[in-house]
Amino acid sequence: MSDVVLGGLLGAALAVGLLLVLTSVPRWRQVDLVDRLEPYLRDTRPSRLLTDLPGRRARLGTLERLLAPVMSDGVRWVERISGGPGTVRRRLEQSGTGTTVEQFRAEQVVWGVLGLAGGAGAAAAVGAARGPAVLPMVAVVVIGGLLGVLGRDQYLSRQVSRREERMMQEFPTVAELLALSVGAGEGAVGALERVARTCQGELSVELRRTLAAARAGASLVQALEGLAARTSLPPLARFVDGVAVAVERGTPLAEVLRSQAQDVRELGRRRLMESGGRKEIAMMVPVVFLVLPVTVLFAVYPGLVSLDLQL
Question: Which sequence ranges are marked TM in the entry (predicted)?
């Protein structure tokens, strides 16, 4: 690494440190509403049940207090870039990880810092290889940070899609078990409790949450509508509508569940056929663009060589 690149990196680090120090000065730092109201709402003698344990924050207590202002500013910046918390909260509920919006924003900030570090390393390597160029190096660092923030968002989307795929795979079996339980004489709530207690998987976890909401005071229809709202699967929404209609109007529930299980199996079969068709077309790409030209070349090359020798 040349002296110019090393000096540029050290100057950038010094500038970032001075900027953090200046933005953390109480006179210039913007105080939010929570910090203003906390001294007036804080109890002088709080209960011991509401306080943290003595050793809970002993490991990173000082580090957390030092990084809290910077982390809060980073969370505000990430929210300004990626949008409000409404969509993020819904996707976190769909992922089933139990992560809050604040934790997700903090993870995005961490991923962004790692992206900045990776971008700085790439910029240093490029500068050492091709010479110092300030604007491209800064662009690489900024792009690395943005890729880190967006990468955490894409990872959340991937978690949601994988969970919904597992729920779609479990849905026909769960619907068949519910139909067997209802056909044996149990009610809708009893059948849901039996299946939720017997099965394992993402859909059974959602059924347990639905039953917990029903026990907390909501009706079964409202709890099932909450299950449909936590997912974006049309077959599950139709399942909730069918169970709600069967419970409210007294229609045969077993036949509805069997027909829905059959529909989901047919949907899975169609998706499998479509995936096979796409894979078949993808397999034609190396055949047409790699194997066929090489075959033609092997067939034509001897003739070209013989013509060249005769000429």
Answer: 6-25, 109-127, 133-151, 281-301
pLDDT tens digits along 3-24: 667 777 788 888 888 877 776 6
pLDDT, position 75: 64
Distance (Å, rounded) from C-alpha 166 to C-alpha 95? 11
* pLDDT value at residue 72: 66
Using the CB atoms, write b or e for 211-250: b if 16+ within 10 Å: bebbeeeeebbebbbbbbeebebebbbebbbbbbebbeee
The predicted-structure confidence for 194-243, as pLDDT tens digits, reads as follows: 888 888 888 888 888 888 888 888 888 888 888 888 887 888 888 888 77
C-alpha torsion 124→129→130→134, nearest 10:
10
Please give, one letter per residue, the 3-state secondary structure of the chain.
CCHHHHHHHHHHHHHHHHHHHHHCCCCCCCCCHHHHHHHHHCCCCCCHHHCCCCCCCCCCHHHHHHHHHHHHHHHHHHHHHHCCHHHHHHHHHHHCCCCCHHHHHHHHHHHHHHHHHHHHHHHHHHHHHHCCCHHHHHHHHHHHHHHHHHHHHHHHHHHHHHHHHHHHHHHHHHHHHHHHHHHCCCCHHHHHHHHHHHCCCHHHHHHHHHHHHHHCCCCHHHHHHHHHHCCCCHHHHHHHHHHHHHHHHCCCHHHHHHHHHHHHHHHHHHHHHHHHHHHHHHHHHHHHHHHHHHHHHHHHHHHHHHHHHHC
Within 10 A of 105 (CB to CB), how many other CB atoms are there? 23
Q: Please say whether the beta carbons of 75 and 102 come within 8 A.
A: yes
Ramachandran angles phi, psi of 144, nearest 5°: -60, -40
Q: Confidence class of residue 247 from pLDDT cuts 50, 70 and 90?
A: confident
